[in-house]
Amino acid sequence: MKTIGVIGGMSWESSSEYYRLLNRHAKTRLGGHHNARSLLLTVDFASIEANQRAGDWQALGEQMADAARQLERGGADLVILATNTMHRVYESIEQAITVPFLHIADPTGAALRAAGVERVGLLGTRYTMEQTFYTGRLRERYGLDTLVPDDDDRADVHRIIYDELCHGNVEDASRKVYQRVIEHLAARGAQAVILGCTEITLLIKPEDSVLPVFDTTALHAQAAVEWAIGE
């Protein structure tokens, strides 16, 4: 098995979920005592979050590129970024390393198309929902029509991510907020919903949603393991 390099820490709560999923899928695929060979580099989310608020995507790209280079020097054969939002600067990562980089939207887009979904709702940070780096890739590569919540719902989704989930706080009241937002997307014609922030998997499970759930964290981790196994 090849070695998966993970840029984590955004937040560490979801990065720990990545670690669990990588190893669980490796064991499912290979059996016995197998784990996924991996390296995890945890960045300091405080500086990342500050640069996000400031809109300094150039600095963020440099931070992600530096982390990717460290992973490659450490022996990573593949690099993944354990966050949806920071894929805004994925090109900086790709240009900084010689090993492959697995974009988080690609396993999700492929899974949606395989399921016959054409119109999908997207939940994530305000950056992911409002900027085009994510929805554009889904449209251009997978032909998906992506719906995002209205402004008030986007504010609620974003606030819960940063103020609660990034700190490990999983509240029933916030789950009900997300369920309401998903219902609004369904009413607008969404056939499924993307959990487009790696923390949302801590709050919303398939049984919590009126729409089929496509969890980017789980799909990304599974695709990385499949690549590392190489079959």
Automatic annotation (TrEMBL):
Enzyme class, UniProt record, top EC level: isomerase
Organism of this sequence = Paraburkholderia atlantica
| UniProt xrefs under InterPro entries | Asp/Glu/hydantoin_racemase, Asp/Glu_race, Asp_race
The highest taxon in the source lineage is Bacteria
The yes or no answer to whether the keyword Cell inner membrane is present is no
What's in the keyword line of the UniProt record? Isomerase
Q: What is this protein called?
A: Aspartate racemase
Q: Which family does it belong to?
A: Belongs to the aspartate/glutamate racemases family.
TM region positions:
none
What EC numbers are recorded for this enzyme?
5.1.1.13
GO MF, any single term: aspartate racemase activity
**Organism classification:** Bacteria, Pseudomonadati, Pseudomonadota, Betaproteobacteria, Burkholderiales
Answer yes or no on keyword Ribonucleoprotein: no
